[in-house]
Amino acid sequence: MCDVFNGKINKGMEKPVIGCLEYIREYLMKRVCNVMKEMKNAKGPLSPTTTNILAARKQLLHNTLLSGMGETSIKSQELCGISMWWMFRNQTCTCRKWELIRIPCRHAIATLNEMSKDLEAELDIYKWVHKVYFLETWKNLIHLRLIQLRGDPCGPKWNVPQS
Q1: I need a labelling partner for 85 at 20 to 30 A (CA). Which of 33, 72, 92, 134 fits?
Q2: 160 within a domain of the structure (yes/no)
Q3: Bridge partners for 64 per DSSP
Q4: Does residue 154 sit within a domain?
């Protein structure tokens, strides 16, 4: 995250400190406006990127076969021969994708799809996604907008002795 932010403010780093801070403020205000536009166009409860990630993982389900269902874990076998274990109590998978970004991996999605075929088990894929990816969380964060300070645009004058 820091490298991405540093890459975005490279142009501002060439300026003096105040100019750099002003550049960062302008960049963040533009970013907030872009996020607000994305939120208006988003469909569903998740952010657009998260929706795309889940859709891509759902498309890969035809390569995953489930076997070895236990009470706390399920073994999934991929067509290429790789086996993964998904533990639903810990919300972990041996592929570790779920642990890294807190969006269910394709093994977890395959298992949830299999479990949802049981009429008594009402499993919603969205309850397995971390709350940071929901639009509602975004809306709560957007209220913390950056505001411009009132006053002299160049700041107060300081009586510093010139030596």
Answers
A1: 134
A2: no
A3: 78
A4: no
